[in-house]
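REQUEST ID: PR-0412
SUBMITTED BY: lab tech R.K.
PRIORITY: routine
TASK: structure prediction, single protein chain
INPUT:
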Amino acid sequence: MLTPEICDEKWILAIDPGSDKVGYAVVYYNLEHGEMGIAWLTEMQRVFRRFCSGDLPNRPQAVVIGNGTAAAVLCRLYNDLGFDLPVYFAEEKNTTYKARARYFQENPPTGLWHFVPLGLQVPPCPLDDYAAWLIGEKYLFEHKLSTIPSP
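STATUS: complete
OUTPUT:
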């Protein structure tokens, strides 16, 4: 995984808004992810400041917010901070469901869990950050910004 501080590649900050917790992911144009995490809605000012302030080469090309639960709240919060990066909304339909599959793709079960069908397993953590990654990927595909052809 790459981080924005050491990568010259273009990237976006993707957000999966929720009423309490918010997933975020650095998504590069080659569809790899950098830092991912989950923050409480009340902590999102800190997250926006961390990723959206600073020198231009180290900032995202845009902030992409899923159009779900707290999208309007997050957009107002971001706009109040006065950053000049564009904000876009992206469809987040089925991203939470697909995040489960992506989690197990990156973290395959080990030991005896390897024999239990994935449909019967529950990830040990919330998946909002994986949903944010998927929102970012979807945005890059739909706007033909990805350096990887769409599947």
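NOTES: The first strand starts at residue 11 and ends at 16.
REVIEWED BY: pending
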